[in-house]
Design a protein that fits this description.
By secondary structure, the chain is mostly helical. It has helices at about 1-10, 10-30, 35-40, 50-65, 75-95, 100-120, 125-145, 150-170. The chain contains 8 helices and no strands.
């Protein structure tokens, strides 16, 4: 919760990636707030008030995930809305003749995004959503201690750069 608040104010892309991780963490604990508190939140150096705030925040997310039927996959609507906003910002940057740096970054990322789409990424969502999914997938592998080849890291570098520039130019 505390990290999410800071990220949302500083870097919207990092916030989305973090919230994707939070959703998966909630799923890993079977959407059980008590388990989350005892097995996960207890690892952090929270005082009683912070722990209560964090548990309440996670309970709110659990409620949303249950109401919005995304217990197993998908994202809560609030996160989906931010991703949609990022897609719109992406398109605005592509259409803005004063933003050639973003257009160049997108051009560099486009072959990778096309390859990802051909390998099973969702064709019905935009480039930003697919880019976020790809970067999140690599992040998960690293968190699990699984190897990520230098080729894969190099291939995703233009996608990551595009997302960095999108975050820098995003206005909520």
């Amino acid at each position: 919760m505390f990290i999410a608040q800071k990220l949302k104010a500083r870097n919207i892309v990092a916030y989305v990636l973090y919230m994707m991780q939070v959703e998966d963490t909630i799923r890993a604990y079977d959407l059980d707030a008590d388990r989350l508190e005892s097995e996960y939140l207890s690892r952090f150096d929270y005082d009683d008030e912070q722990l209560a705030q964090a548990k309440e925040w996670y309970e709110g997310l659990i409620d949303m995930m249950q109401m919005e039927m995304c217990q197993k996959t998908g994202h809560v609507q609030a996160l989906t809305n931010i991703i949609s906003d990022l897609e719109a910002a992406h398109q605005s940057l592509l259409d803005d003749p004063q933003k050639p740096f973003y257009q160049a970054a997108y051009g560099a990322a486009l072959p990778v995004l096309g390859e990802l789409r051909s390998k099973g990424m969702d064709e019905e969502v935009g480039d930003v959503a697919n880019a976020l999914d790809a970067v999140y997938g690599i992040t998960l592998l690293k968190m699990q201690g699984k190897p990520v080849s230098p080729e894969t890291s190099a291939a995703l570098a233009p996608v990551t750069r595009m997302l960095e520039l999108l975050a820098e130019n995003y206005e909520s």
